[in-house]
Amino acid sequence: MSETTLGGIASRMPKFIRRADPAVATAFACIVILLLLGSLYSRSFLSPEYLLQQLKVASFLGVIATGMMLVILLGQIDLSVPWSVATGAMMACAAAAYGPVGVALAIPFGILCGVAIGIVNGVGVAYLRIPSMIITLATNAVAQGLMVVYTGGFSPQDSATAAMRYLATGFTIPGVPNAVIIWALIGAAMVFVLTRTSFGRAVYGIGNRERAAYLSGIDTRRVVLIAFAVSGGLSAFGGVLLAGYASKAAQSMGDAYLLPSIAAVVLGGTSILGGRGSYLGTVAGVILITLLQSILSVMQMPEAGRQIIYGVVIVAMLLLYGRAPASR
Amino acid sequence: MKDWRYWLAEQRGTLLAFAIFIVMFAIYSGNHPAGFTANVVQTAANKGVLLAFVAMAQTLVVITAGIDLSVGMIFTLTNCMASWLVIGTGLETAFGLVAVLGTGLVCGAINGAIVIYGRLQPIVATIATGAVYFGLALLLRPVPGGSVNEDVADFLTGRFFGVVPASLMALFVVVLVVWVPFRRSELGRAAYAAGSSETAAYMSGVPIRRGKFLAYTLAGLLAAIGGLFLTFFTYTGEAAYASGNAYTLFSIAAVVLGGVSLFGGKGSAIGAIFGALAFRTIGDLLFVFDFDPLWQPLFQGIILLIAVSLGAFALFRVRNRLEWFL
After folding, report:
1. How far apart are the first and last CA of chain A?
2. Angle at CA A298, nearest 5°, toward A296 and A302?
3. Are B120 and A323 a contacting pair at CB < 8 A?
4. Which string of DSSP letters, residue by residue, matches B191-216?
5. Could you tell me the maximum CA-CA distance found in chain A, to the nearest angstrom?
6. Taking the CB of the first residue and of the last residue of chain A, which one, N or C, has fewer CB atoms within 10 A?
7. What are phi and psi of B164, to 5 degrees?
8. A12 vs B165 pLDDT, higher one
9. CATH numbers and ranges of domains, chain B
10. Is B239 helix (H, G, I), strand (E, B) or coil?
């Protein structure tokens, strides 16, 4: 296990493998293993239709995990995802009730509500210096309270607009679901922002050491605020897409996305302490989680078993490569 | 002369929580249609004690500068277990009690082992273990049901001498048996030291790992006691995701109200108990003033938001902007 032998092996490998992050490579290897296991179980597992369907389901998680990744890169966490998703979906559906203007503005309005939640989070974290996991839990509770009051305790019968359904389930390019295209666009934008803009550099800098980033002239508080607002907006957009997919919004629709979104980001090799990680890893993590969910449901695993396997897999993967350095 | 001042400074958070609770409870019982009677106190105590146990559990972990987002799920899991095991003859019931409390200890120890020896971040690790505990709870109780030994349940949720709520006495006993020895032990001090400054504690040779491990383990035990009491009140077990999450959330609110610093090393479980009782009373004020119960989640959320924002006042003491970044 000495460095020289590792280096010796590495130098003989092709360049693209040498440059790959071991965590990202592990995640992709796990995807291949899952696909092989799945194909043993059922023939149709490797068919293009099935894989495309999986990619479509993955894109909802992908949009939400994109925002989560931005926040985790800062060394923070966003636990308000469940009700940001639900708020985005429910508010977009609610806006559709107000005539043609409401229908036209439904999607932006839903996203805007998510951004508002994100801004409250961002102000709390960046300006009031409240630990992110606490303030985001609190805004999550407030968003839940607002939605409960708004709906009167029941899921309203508001259904998704045609535009929302088209975004989630339609086809602009034959054969490629719109949801996948949206995820690809958002992902491309995220890669551009993270690697080609000063904002992206600032995000990585703050994640490594906020004090140093501040001293080098970055307005760290503004960057943190924007990151949380983007995360809230993307969560809400994920909710809008989910509402389009299910053709209606429901109160607890976001609950199933908190753990998977954090898991996808962390399994993709992004350090939970911030400052390190690539978007490619998050893509791998999202696909990995979606495939795992899909295999478990194909095997007709009950909800209880799924929760247990999730938790165990996440802890196991983190123990493999997410550990903090030892005490001095 | 100086001694009481130090004591006052140390207990400021606890005393503040106590004062908030007294004021809130005075408003509550003053406006309650039945007035300040033994029945009203008993009902309020039974509701408050559940949260108080979970809040004590959270306090132990928060003192070490960690957080346990699985307390609510341990609470739910032990509730489901108790609805199977704490029943039958005296001996069977006793065995069930030990098994349930032992499960809590094991859950807490698993959290501690993963966080301390596995060196994972407490937030992610406990979210993940929380999912596992909830899955186990669902396995035990796919649908709500079960029953408990009603003699024991009625004894522990009733009143002593017709006045003192038994659940409050149980809380008092747990404080004496679990919290006080922990606070006074070497390992308890190590947990505080680790929360205050892990580096300094490590350099001074304090057994930080064992101290933190004990804190996580006892947190599991306290959450299990909470789960046990939930079974005594409801006579059933239910694997409710929303309720487990709510208890986790409210435990954090109670801890903050109780003057325990989320950055670790400061505060006491006594403060958290009063924080929990105060939080419950504030939540129930709505009922006394005849508000629609629909407003309760929003109201509790806003109290939580205000409670956590109070920490921001520390910013006024910052002299150098670099102190923003801990």
Report:
1. 22
2. 50
3. yes
4. HHHHHH-HHHHHHTT--HHHHHHHHH
5. 69
6. N
7. -80, 120
8. B165
9. 11-290 (1.10.3470)
10. coil
Distance CA B122, CA B215 (A): 13
A202: containing domain = 58-282
Distance CA(B288)–CA(B283), nearest Å, equals: 10
Residue B27, chain A, CB below 8 Å: the answer is no
Best to test chain A binding among B133, B203, B292, B325 (most A CBs inside 10 Å): B325
Nearest to B308 among A130, A214, A303 (CB): A130
User: Look-up: residue for tokens 């609610």?
Assistant: A94
pTM given for the model: 0.87
Asked if B312's CB is within 8 angstroms of A311's CB, the reply is no
| Cβ-based neighbour number of residue A48 at 10 Å | 8
Closest-CA residue to B118 (of A317, A174, A244):
A317
Predicted local confidence at residue A173, as pLDDT:
81
Q: Give me the interface pTM, i.e. the ipTM.
A: 0.83
Pull the structure tokens for residue A117: 């939640």
Work out the angle between the directed axes of helices B269-288 and B38-63 (0-180°, nearest 10).
140
φ, ψ for residue B160 (rounded to 5)? -90, 135
Among A135, A315, A324, beta carbon nearest to B128: A315
Each residue's pLDDT tens digit in chain A (328 positions)? 444 444 455 555 566 555 667 778 888 888 898 888 888 877 777 888 888 889 999 999 999 999 999 999 999 999 999 999 999 999 998 888 887 888 888 999 999 999 999 999 999 999 988 888 889 989 999 999 999 888 876 656 567 888 888 888 888 888 888 999 999 999 999 999 999 999 999 999 999 988 899 999 999 999 999 999 999 999 999 999 999 998 888 888 888 898 889 889 988 888 888 888 999 999 999 999 999 888 888 888 888 888 898 889 888 888 877 677 776 5
Distance (Å, rounded) from C-alpha B156 to C-alpha B46?
10
Q: How many domains does chain A have?
A: 1
**One-character DSSP codes across A56-122:** HHHHHHHHHHHHHHHHHHTT---TTHHHHHHHHHHHHHHHTTSHHHHHHHHHHHHHHHHHHHHHHHH
Give the mutation candidate from A68, A142, A208, A319 for the B interface (greatest B CB count, under 10 A).
Answer: A142
**What is the distance between the alpha carbons of residues B293 and B283, in angstroms, rounded to a whole number?**
10
Per-residue burial over B204-231, b if 16 or more Cβ lie within 10 Å, else e, is: eebbbebbbbbbbbbbbbbbbbbbbbbb
Flag if A142 and B135 touch (Cβ within 8 Å): no
Domain-located, residue A325: no
CB nearest to A137's CB, from B128, B139, B252:
B252
Residues B260 and B91: beta-carbon distance below 8 Å:
no
Residue A251 covered by a domain: yes
Q: What is the mean pLDDT of residues B146-151?
A: 84
Predicted confidence (pLDDT) per residue in B217-228, tens digit: 999 999 999 999
Q: What is the secondary structure of B70-134 as a DSSP string?
A: THHHHHHHHHHHHHHHS-SSHHHHHHHHHHHHHHHHHHHHHHHIIIIIS---HHHHHHHHHHHHH
CA distance A38 to A298: 9
The answer to the question of residue A2 being in a domain is no
